[in-house]
From TrEMBL:
This is PPM-type phosphatase domain-containing protein. One of its GO terms (molecular function) is protein serine/threonine phosphatase activity. Gene3D superfamilies: PPM-type phosphatase domain (3.60.40.10). It comes from the Bacteria. InterPro entries: PP2C, PPM-type-like_dom_sf, PPM-type_phosphatase-like_dom. The lineage of its organism: Bacteria, Pseudomonadati, Thermodesulfobacteriota, Desulfovibrionia, Desulfovibrionales. Residues 4-250 form the PPM-type phosphatase domain. Pfam families: PP2C_2.
Amino acid sequence: MVESHGITDVGLHRSRNEDCLLMDDGLGLYVVADGMGGHQAGEVAAQLAVRTIHQHMLHMQAAESAASGPDSQRDPSLSVAANEVRTAILAANRAVLARAQDSPELQGMGTTVAVVYLRGNVLVAANVGDSPIYLLRGGVLRELSVAHTVATEQAALGRRLPESLREKLGHMLTRAVGTREVVTPDFFETFPRHNDVLLLCSDGLAGTVRREELQNVLLRHTPRRACEALLALALARGGEDNITCLAVRLQVQERGGIRSGAA
């Protein structure tokens, strides 16, 4: 059983909301997307990506098959559930790219995606871009996603951006859905545990609320109250960007073990 709640808000300085979220408790699927692009392009990219992922996951669960079509080659390092998510994200990438190619006013659009999928005794977290996924387990919050930004990837190589470039390039995305023909999601897999809490959000929240604050709010509140409190906190700190948060609390039989990898 799960208890979930999600909120998305335009913030205080944007004219439209380019974030999108999806909660399907029956399917065990939770998605947050943060679109980018001029005019309405970011909004289109985020909504199209979320809709495509949802449709593909529904189809694959109904068919009890990990994939069909051009993405049917399984990644042996991933579980069946993670391969289903991978297939859906790759389909979303094709859909956003094709839509941009068909509409000149949408060219250059793209979106982040953060996905959590619960299937049987597997919890899959997958992401492209910098919309984070957190897991609260045993009172400790950890990030399951990998931020695909210039700063993060340089840090992984042991390099530090010069101060003069940090503000301009530090948060620049190195991966996004719909901007290139090939996209590589990162994956994290584990067995779900009783009272695990998952948080998916856009950088409008993650960029203004510290991790210890996220942890404290999730420890004290239900998913609904946690989302409401986090939104209020982000707005109180300026609401510079669109703000989206989605919280899921699990009630499952406990098992152990962790797996992680990339597509």
